């Protein structure tokens, strides 16, 4: 009887794999088993050669830099991120956050404050949610002692970074954030969370902003990042 009900619901409200669009089985969620097995995890050595890590770590002493998945043309992680950002699929963000939380649980302070890269209010209204905040929710599900803050807001509505050169990306995000309540970050272990990090320009702008609150430490984690730019 259970299978009949599931089959009926699948007809009315189809559940398909985010990456390959194949119908999901009852026990599958967001990704089919095949696509989950194809997730392109970063190795430690690859992370240490990540272009964004090399830039950020040369400027700041980060408590953590963790990139979970390689982001490349048409791979599973790229299709997940595109679905999260452009296809109204926030559950993808929650799953990415759960996976990120499990892998970072022993690398991040138990009393850390998670801070998603904010969207400008105009862009968030159009999208309906902030994709990085969905990732943060999934992370906190894995470690309830982590706190979430949204005290940093994006004061400038920048244009998309996708087709910009590295120099243009740095210029596009200079001085775009501001802190609303310094006490939420002061003397705290702050962890910045993003969906995709490429050059690190947005993250650098965020770090400069957060430093004004004199946090105890700053770390950076991302669901995905290209292995080269």
Structural description of this entry:
This protein is an alpha/beta fold and 229 residues long. It folds into two domains: 1-38, no CATH class; 40-225, Rossmann fold. The chain is built from ten helices and seven strands. It has helices spanning 2-12, 33-37, 44-48, 51-59, 76-86, 90-104, 121-127, 131-142, 166-172, 201-211, and strands spanning 65-70, 113-116, 147-149, 152-154, 177-179, 189-196, 217-225. The strands form two sheets. Strands 1-7-6-2-3 form a five-stranded parallel sheet, sandwiched between helices. Strand 6, helix 10 and strand 7 form a beta-alpha-beta unit. Helix 5 (76-86) crosses helix 6 (90-104) and helix 6 (90-104) packs across helix 8. It starts with a helix and ends with a strand. The relative contact order is 0.17.
List keywords for this structure.
229 residues, alpha/beta, Rossmann fold, two-stranded antiparallel ribbon, 10 helices, 7 strands
Structural class: alpha/beta
Distance N terminus to C terminus?
Answer: 52 Å
Round the mean pLDDT to the nearest integer and report it. Answer: 90
How many domain units?
A: 2
CATH topology of the largest domain: Rossmann fold
Topology, please?
Elements: H1 2-12, H2 33-37, H3 44-48, H4 51-59, E1 65-70, H5 76-86, H6 90-104, E2 113-116, H7 121-127, H8 131-142, E3 147-149, E4 152-154, H9 166-172, E5 177-179, E6 189-196, H10 201-211, E7 217-225
Parallel strand pairs: 1-7, 2-3, 2-6, 6-7
Antiparallel strand pairs: 4-5
Helix pairs in contact: 5-6, 6-8
